[in-house]
Design brief:
This protein has 373 residues and is of the alpha+beta class. The protein has eleven helices and 14 strands. Bound molecules: adenosine-5'-diphosphate and magnesium ion (MG). The site of adenosine-5'-diphosphate (ADP) has 14 residues, from helix 1, strand 4 and strand 5.
């Protein structure tokens, strides 16, 4: 299929789905045109995914890569307290990838997630690369003027909250590096039968038909296998906290906010630096992913370290003035929050209390050029 047929098909696909009525011109012209509303501010973000750096081709089914490309941007828009609305995506593919089913599966994953959150794919670009896949995802959202939640607005005395659970994505990445792979659809059918009476089933839908061993070295029990698959999906198919972002922004509940992409320790440090404050975290209140506790304790991986420094959980980290805490919903879209500490008036001092000890929390999250200068 040539580039123009491909773009034409994308154009048909986006037109046939529910799309934004404010998109005056989308795919098919030199640029897209969006009509603006008074009293609303536009929020824009871009994220790049480079093969070998941000994902491994052999461990990432194209459909999940399409999902993740949009998910990471949805998380950024959520972290601003905004509602996502329009997106653009640019793909650079080598010849062999262009000529297989990659692009169809990629857009299936991408557009399925876009539909879930009412995002209209409004444009993009296609290019050819020599060897590796590169994706650039752009997302536009909106928020009431003045309601965008910045990193720089935390105040001493604010409570610090986090959505969902931490450490799962980093554990999933470790498992991939140890050789674990998403199970095939064939075995999904089997595993759903197996787990039916236990009341839960892995929602594994992706993957090649081959079935490599779950983790190199050592057999796992069936419940370990279930935990492994759940953690792999935490890494490969993140669920951005779009609903929480909108509530925290529109209800003006959050003071400052950031999404956890590099790791809690690093992202909290970014927020504190921008706000010129410090923080004290209570170790016992950290919502560590239960599958991380179950598996990693036994595999010489420290669950607390994964929760503190592991990246790509795509949870929201936000501060709340104590007076507003009572207005916080318990759950949004089924996702709970945990109060993990407090903002202090000691700029640059980020500490964690564990039992009777208090220590400095070093920012040890992900950094692209760490040790490369
Ligand atoms: P130009 O050469 O003028 O940049 P292109 O041929 O790159 O035009 O793109 C034609 C149209 O197709 C544009 O509206 C562009 O936004 C859209 N488009 C191209 N690639 C993608 C893509 N990956 N996803 C969505 N829309 C795309
Ligand atoms: Mg172009």
């Amino acid at each position: 299929m040539n580039e123009f047929d491909f773009i034409q098909r994308l154009r048909d696909q986006t037109r046939s789905r529910k799309h934004s009525s404010r998109l005056v011109t989308g795919i098919g012209d030199d640029a897209s045109v969006i009509s603006q509303l008074t009293g609303r501010a536009v929020v824009i973000t871009t994220d790049m995914l480079a093969e070998g750096i941000d994902f491994y081709r052999e461990a990432t089914p194209p459909r999940l890569l399409g999902h993740k490309a949009l998910a990471v941007s949805l998380s950024d828009i959520a972290a601003m307290g905004a509602r996502p609305l329009w997106s653009l995506v640019s793909i650079g593919l080598p010849d062999d990838v262009w000529n297989n089913t990659f692009k169809d599966e990629f857009f299936e994953g991408y557009l399925t997630l876009a539909d879930k959150y009412g995002v209209t794919l409004s444009g993009g670009d296609v290019s050819r690369t020599v060897e590796q896949i590169v994706i650039d995802s752009i997302l536009l959202g909106e928020v009431s003027s003045g309601a965008a939640v910045l990193r720089s607005a935390a105040q001493p005395g604010d409570q610090i909250y986090v959505t969902g659970a931490l450490g799962g994505s980093a554990a999933g990445l470790k498992l991939i590096e140890m050789g674990a792979r998403i199970r095939s659809r064939k075995s999904e059918v089997r595993s759903q039968k197996d787990t039916r009476d236990r009341g839960s089933s892995p929602t594994v839908r992706e993957g090649s038909e081959s079935e490599p061993p779950a983790v190199a070295g050592g057999p796992s029990t069936r419940s370990d296998e279930h935990a492994i698959q759940t953690l792999l999906l935490r890494h490969l198919r993140p669920h951005p906290r779009v609903g929480w972002g909108i509530v925290l922004g529109e209800e003006r509940l959050a003071g400052a906010m950031i999404d956890i992409s590099d790791g809690l320790s690093s992202d909290l440090a970014h927020l504190c630096r921008e706000s010129n404050v410090g923080a004290l975290i209570q170790s016992a209140q950290l919502p560590i992913d239960k599958d991380v506790i179950k598996l990693c304790g036994r595999r010489a991986l420290d669950p607390l370290a994964l929760a503190l420094h592991g990246g790509e959980d795509f949870e929201l980290l936000f501060t709340v003035h104590p007076e507003n805490a009572a207005r916080l919903p318990k759950r949004v879209d089924g996702v709970a929050i945990s109060c993990i500490g407090e903002i202090t008036n000691e700029p640059g001092q980020i500490r964690i209390a564990e039992k009777n000890r208090v220590w400095d929390l070093e920012a040890k999250g992900f950094e692209h050029f760490r040790g490369k200068e």
